[in-house]
Amino acid sequence: GVKIASLLKETGLVTLDPGFMNTASTESAITYIDGDEGILRYRGYPIDQLAKNSSFLETAYLLIYGELPDEETLDAVTRRIKRHTILHEDFKEFFTAFPRNGHPMAVLQAGISALATYYQHTLDPKDPHQLETATVLLMAKVPTMIAYIAKRATGLPLLYPDASKSYVEDFLRMTFALPYQEDVDPALVKALDMLLILHADHEQNCSTSTVRMVGSSHANIYASIAAGVGALSGPLHGGANEAVLDMLGKIQAEGGGVDDFMRRVKDKEDGVRLMGFGHRVYKHYDPRAAIVKEAAHEVLGKLGKSDELLEIAMGLEEIALNDDYFVERKLYPNVDFYTGLIYKAMGFPTQMFTPLFALGRLPGWIAQYREMITDPATKIGRPRQVYIGETERQYTDISER
Ligand code: ACO
């Protein structure tokens, strides 16, 4: 890679690779994907082993520090994070500045970038101590922030974090509970913990590349991760989980027939796509989607919710897996085809789905930012272009145009 780069520099040639289909932007030791085989590993550990046995905080530690923690270390890190979960009181005012029905991703992006104004002693990414503190603050405060955004949208009272509860349980409690009713179903805690693990990293995807790109200018980690939240909000990326539910809801409202919808997808009518299908890297069943599909049945079953939308989703998948259009293009369900159904069963409004993805991806963004900022090979991200505009021409006075 370095040789090609210096050759291109010497010759003045540039590569043109729209969407970076075949351009590696970095070396990385965090996440491995084999898209043809449907393999995903964090720091070498297969995703299904982590989903089954790990916890979100343990996986976050693994991604950020490179190894699974021993009990004592995990305990110490958890306690350190829990000490910082309370948001500055002024933040409550901050949230009131936005309309209640504003999209939570927009508020979250603003909130994360605003952390830089409260924690000015943690902004220098070249100071390992500051970077470490910022890592803990982000892991601690983002769940509280997301819970507050959800609560404010409904007008319900905000609850303070409770350090005696687990990370995920406390997030669910702050999001849903009222002051007098605090029990959270342990089955939901377990399911959400697992979904957060599945979303925790996915190498150089759009939002992670954004985090690295912004950080390559030595912008602080809050600014960089806030930019990642913006990238994640798009319907072709993290916003897909919300778009899937909207799509399923529309199909249901139109009578539940999947055939006509699939015809429109295949005819590319009005650019309609089967949301939650397809992936830039996976040309095989997304290993995360298989785990989520199983969880969807389990969670909906446990909650006693038979969901017609799940039936519609399975119908769409069945058609797609046997249809030439999808088979030829190697389009399979991605992680977000079934997540929305679980989030919905848990009681999250559709607009909160992508913030949940952001919470899951947070340790991945942090790990990637830290790897980027400490890698001596990192240079400021600055792609070249192939100019196709006008050649030189002369300015004319406005009266002559
Ligand atoms: N439905 C219908 N057709 C599709 C879909 C889809 N979901 N995805 C791709 N295609 C078709 C394209 O129309 C194209 O067809 P063509 O060869 O006839 O032109 C072909 O498959 C290749 O698609 P591209 O858009 O070139 O593939 P790319 O790698 O650029 O896009 C992406 C990947 C953005 C994920 C795409 O598959 C998509 O839009 N999917 C739906 C949105 C989605 O679920 N996003 C979530 C991604 S995963 C994540 O962020 C967690």
Automatic annotation (TrEMBL):
It catalyses: oxaloacetate + acetyl-CoA + H2O = citrate + CoA + H(+). It comes from Georgenia wutianyii. GO terms for molecular function: citrate synthase activity. Pfam families: Citrate_synt (PF00285). Keywords: Acyltransferase, Transferase, Tricarboxylic acid cycle. InterPro entries: Citrate_synth-like_lrg_a-sub, Citrate_synth-like_sm_a-sub, Citrate_synthase, Citrate_synthase_AS, Citrate_synthase_bac-typ, Citrate_synthase_sf, Citrate_synthase_typ-I. Coiled coil: none annotated. Gene3D superfamilies: 2.20.28.60, Citrate Synthase, domain 1, Cytochrome P450-Terp, domain 2. Pathway: Carbohydrate metabolism; tricarboxylic acid cycle; isocitrate from oxaloacetate: step 1/2. This is Citrate synthase. Belongs to the citrate synthase family. The keyword Transport does not apply. PANTHER family: CITRATE SYNTHASE (PTHR42871).
